[in-house]
Structures
1.
Amino acid sequence: MDQFTINLIFVGSSFALYFGIAIWARAGSTKEFYVAGGGVHPVLNGMATAADWMSAASFISMAGLIAAGGYANSTFLMGWTGGYVLLAMLLAPYLRKFGKFTVPDFIGDRFYSKTARLVAVACLIIASVTYVIGQMTGAGVAFSRFLEVDNDTGLVIAAIVVFFYAVLGGMKGITYTQVAQYVVLIIAYTIPAVFISMQLTDTLIPAIGLFSEHTESGIPLLQKLDEVVRELGFQDYTADVDNKLNMILFTLSLMIGTAGLPHVIIRFFTVPKVADARWSAGWALVFIALLYLTAPAVASMARLNLLTTVYPSGPTEQPIEYAERPDWVQTWETTGLIKFEDKNGDGRVQFYNDVPAFQEEATARGWAGNELDVNRDILVLANPEIANLPSWVIGLIAAGGLAAALSTAAGLLLAISSAISHDLIKGSINPNISDKGELKVARISMFVAIVVATYLGMNPPGFAAQVVALAFGIAGASLFPALMMGIFSKRVNGIGAITGMLAGLISTLVYIFLFLGWFFIPGTASFANTPDNWLFGISPLSFGAVGAVINFVVAFTVSSLTAPPPKEIQELVESVRYPQGAGGAVDH
Amino acid sequence: MSDNNNNAEKYWQANLRLILGSLVVWALASYGCAILLRPLLSGIHVGGTDLGFWFAQQGSILVFIVLTFFYAWKMNKLDEEFGLQE
């Protein structure tokens, strides 16, 4: 059977499973559509949250990022998991107690203001729409690579699949599909990693293999990797980072951004009780960690494998001849994601770090520049081929990559559509709409959101690469502080929260625009995006944490100069703090 | 009624203390051991590298998991002690 047929079988049967779940889990009321009826078991919700959270970026790109940056890019590992500790202790249980459907619901009620609710809706929509574009393009790429259709056709197929189970089932359909998608993606990620760990370190568990002995050389894997990259002019894989302030702020921005992203928060509205929301955050972290503990192992092993492929006799010896390159290099050359150019005309593949510090050494070896360009996103996708694994593993990776992209896209689309139907239409425009009417509007908004996301996926605005910074910056600097103050302070009032959110949002956006271009229009950046220009060495991607501090300071200052919130709002704050008791806003 | 309020207030204070303690550990594992204190811990070797690297790529995630479950367990127990469970 050829590879295409195998891929088709794997992807096709995973889709059949999602369709089956969609038909079984149709939503009959708004409560089912928005929060899956509030009856999801905490362990299942943990699994669904993990699939919701782990996007195409986690599945495909993260290992490549770590492979390229080594220790310096550990920020992604810590940032994208540490946020769940904040979510578990500072937000999820109280918002579950509040017991309504959306994030702007809470901000609007707690700060007794339609304006606050609308600001929250705007933040939510900007953050989620930018995020969903990345998922749709990711799904398009996965389709075109594995099913040999063009990118736009791939996108449309992805959109139809999501449409089917998200519009029909709402949160209920999405939740149970995400559980299935989690299983598919974690198996797809783990199997190749286990094989590679066995090959390199004789260790079954990749996370342990990472710190074990490299079988071939008899020295620890990471020490071996450090030695190899050093010989080729790269920085040591485990080298420390000089700018610790920026590393800390970047990690913190990712953490508070994670905790403040609405599509993650609403997952905790689906469990039956406050106690379950707490457990569920722990389970989500366990299921996320299964991938996040494997990713750094995949990163270092794939990097070593790649360098050993190019330098089979060691980095101080001659690299391979281009004519003898392995099959998988040829496969990926056709996609343009691996490029080779024989600069010194010796027919061999020189792959090294082409920097001034290494110039002398390179010249001495007769090298005229780095000749191999490997896109870091292919590491996970090419892993099975690099390790010579059977072709069904490649089919599995295809299904896994699509599961990661689709599950996150569906979660984001639900967050967007519920903000429109529940917060904008029922909350502001037509409060008297019936439950049936609202359900219909929710489905229509979902449909529109999918069409817009598909269109933007086909015609990505120039800033697709900046999307992560934008989404995390907005969620971390605007929504996270507002939610936290709404729970932990009785004194912060409506005007304080609104000015705080706007100050956090605007300061973060301005700092990002200064270095990455105003509204991401190329060529409009006020300063070159280099560490010398950054304020105190803080990169635009790390500014979300600073924006959050500005938000807190402004909100507290303005609140202390104006009247405290009315008594019933202080009672609302009391009621969300206690799982049972003082009565209040619970609707069931 | 004042008894009730007193009870609730104690529960909330206990929760705040628990959160504060947990967040100290959270920050020590990630910002401390994995980033700021890495040079200090470089003498401790773990599988071909140092303890700080291990915390950055593995240890901090394990600490996060333990913290989240510990908090859930402890809070659910507090709920019952104060008679505030659902």
2.
Amino acid sequence: MSIFVDDDTRVVVQGITGGEGKFHTRQMIEYGTNVVAGTSPGKGGQDVDGIPVYDTVEEAVDEEDANASVVFVPPAFAGDAIFEALDTDLDLVVAITEGVPTQDMAKVNKRLSETDTRLIGPNCPGIITPGEAKLGILPGNIFEEGNVGLVSRSGTLTYQVVSNLTERGIGQTTAIGIGGDPIIGTSFVDALEAFENDPDTHAVVMCGEIGGEDEEQAAKYIAENMDTPVAGFIAGRTAPPGKRMGHAGAIVSGSGTGTAESKISALNDAGVPVGDTPNEVADHIEDFL
Amino acid sequence: MVMKLHEYQAKDIFAEAGIPVPESRLASSVEEVMEAVEEIGYPAAIKAQVHVGGRGKAGGIKIAMDEDEARQAAEDILGMDLKGYTVDRVLVEAGVDFENELYVGITMDRSEGKPVAMVSTEGGVNIEEVAEETPEAIAREHIDPAFGLHPYQARKVVFEAGIPRDVAFDVASFLTTLYDLYESNDASDIEINPVMITSDRDIVAADAVMNIDDDALFRHDDLAAMEEDAYENDLEAKAGEYGFDYVRLSGNVGIIGNGAGLVMTTLDLVDYFGGEPANFLDIGGGAKAERVANALDMVFSDENVDSVVFNIFGGITRGDEVAKGINEALESFDEIPKPVVVRLAGTNAEEGMEILNTDLVQVEGTLEDAVQRAVKNAQEVSQ
């Protein structure tokens, strides 16, 4: 089993005719993902590598029975693209786009709360269930089928930890990059809950970073609700207050909230070992299995 | 990230929206300050216009009661160094005869995914201390971004904060206007501390903080044009030109990588293995050779840097492009200025390793080994 995506996921790529959209559609198909349609307003009727292009997501859903979308639309139009996806009642929307205005995301977040759709991202690498489907830009070749779930705020840090696992022969059920923005659709808690309910996931890696309180909330959730063991990593221990470390969400505020120390101690208190290096996280996971 | 507006810029925006602000003039020389106080009269506040919190405590704000004091304040503040920023302009502002100081702010509550309006009677002091020590002294009201701040919500939060009843409606309408500005300008936060209640029971915005979400600047040309001295140092300005996410730190190990989380991790590992990071530099996803060469140029031009670690885990970034960029950058030197350790993994890493000129760089296979070697290099150089 897996969470959120599998063999049955039928994907529409929003922004399929753009450079990024086109490139990653090919990569997703190569990985075995069931990409059934793309959208690009004004380019309906064309095709990209044989994948039919529609003007609207609604048509893609009606004609090709898509149940998930991946958004590669530029930031100025990404909020609108997510609204469009939400209005067609897809099961899953994965927004890769980086740089979506925060107030656009606040409005999306409000609409999201009125639907049953799951949004992952924005500003994320996407989600992969090894051997079944990849929605996003993660490099498929580093993943392997197995029993470890992984959830992370960062893309390349995910790759690092996954390669530390795969090198030891430890495969993954599903890996999710939830994104580095202040407002995102799927939180750590959402992903942890899904992993807890997945019988094939025997251990979970959670990679957090400075900023916000998501990791602290996750620690609380783990302590109260999880039997599946979790190992953690927190990036940004050396980040000075008031400096944004790349991600819009990765900032320790002047009053000291969002620090690595607070997150690490919350996780430790919840019984979650936190690695000093990505490789140590893999050590902890190896101990669990 | 955010684009910070200066106090005078934010006050211009407030004034245009009908929010009362004290009479003021911008001045960049002692003469201009003297002309301004002549028109405005005494008492007058002389306020440094720099992007630094706690200007008052740091000596960047002075009240002048007469001509001598105004001249002295202008001479003291203009040209002074305020936490790394040189003050080249001051706002000369009419002093306000006030009875109470309030705090009013709007920001994004990321845990709720909604904007929140905040009002407190504990204005004029460090509001972060108030938030920490007596959080109940700040009344909060979350705002549905689809509908905006309803007038009843503005009244509710003002009454909850215990604002004196004779000015409560004024403060509520002030808050409504602020939310309109917050939304229409894509602000990330707006803060007025203090809002003064004058002896005539009027309200005046005595300070103004307004930061704009820079991801939204594409739809605000007017605001984008207001950006001034955004960078703390020349290196950060250079990074801005190259389009890198860059933060300068105080150590001597230069760090280049792709992806915020992995670069932060590389910094942490430098620290963990006994070194000190000199910077955070994220080249972003899908970087081509030129961008890679620019990144090396950035880090080499930091005189604090004694050694460099280049850590790439390619997803959309390709190892061969990175290797090409590293070669290009290093082959242009007769002598490599600082030892560079390279670690390539992920997409096209093998192709990259074949291309990479290993006479010019040291190669390591794992993140941990690469960081340890760079730390050792830095220690050797600095000895």
